[in-house]
Amino acid sequence: MARDVLELARRIRDARSVVALTGAGISVPSGIPDFRSPGTGLWANVDPMEVAHIDAWRADPERFWSFYGERFVGLREKAPNSAHDVLVELERRGRLDGVITQNIDTLHRRAGSQVVVEVHGTIEHSSCLVDGEAHDLDEVLERIGAADDGVPRCDAGHPLKPDVVLFGEMLPEDALQRAYDLASRADVLLCVGSSLEVHPVAQLPGVTQANGGVVALVTSGPTPWDGRAAHRLDGDVVEELEGLLAALDGLDAP
């Protein structure tokens, strides 16, 4: 077994609190593209400011929903992968206090994670910003299909907005506070599949470190924390997490 995996397993075994921070990379094995990989990333062939900004939703909801409607259909069809399952198992064993995720795909909760902080929102529902009316994803997709222009609307006729954080919007304060609370108490912040470049979530490793914890990276791409993290696993995210779980099994064996 690789020495770095075993060292991280020992760190997790001895920790009082371990928290996972996940990004797009954990969902790539489920068939969901990340954001910036050349040719395959979500933003490879489209300007996010033109389709994923709150001003774009306000100015041209038809164009906005032509992009997001197709994406939501694709996300609903995806299933959690083994990397999600490892985090569920760590939580079940009492080794993981919670998951902070930048992902909107709901895969952590669908996999079975109980404590999930979705700092960028979720595709699970959309709301009307005029009257507060909300609809779940299945209803939103039905309304997209029934609309001549492909724009789902509330019963009063106002365009719905997905309950995800768009460019130009602030993160929900309650979710961000929960994330900071978890990160501040963590002895180990396990950063999985995140580039750690999107703020304010990118500040969470610093919160952990400032409070005496350590940062562990499980991601194949470069991050600003590569030279500061206590542990760095840069292989396939599924293989690395499965190897970590196996190492913990070995340490726990009589």
CATH class category of the largest domain: Alpha Beta
Strand order of the largest sheet: 3-2-1-7-8-9
Instruction: Based on Cα principal axes, name the global outline.
Output: elongated
Largest sheet: 6 strands, parallel
Fraction in beta strands: 15-25%
CATH-assigned fold name of the largest domain:
Rossmann fold
Oligomer: single chain
Question: What does this protein structure show overall?
Answer:
There is one protein chain. The protein is α/β, with parallel strands linked by helices. The strands form 2 sheets. The chain has a 6-stranded parallel beta sheet with strand order 3-2-1-7-8-9, with helices on both faces. It has a 3-stranded antiparallel beta sheet with strand order 5-4-6. The chain folds into 2 domains: 156 residues, 3-Layer(aba) Sandwich (Rossmann fold); 87 residues, SIR2/SIRT2 'Small Domain'. The longest helix has 16 residues. The protein has 10 helices and 9 strands. Helix 6 links the parallel strand 2 and strand 3.
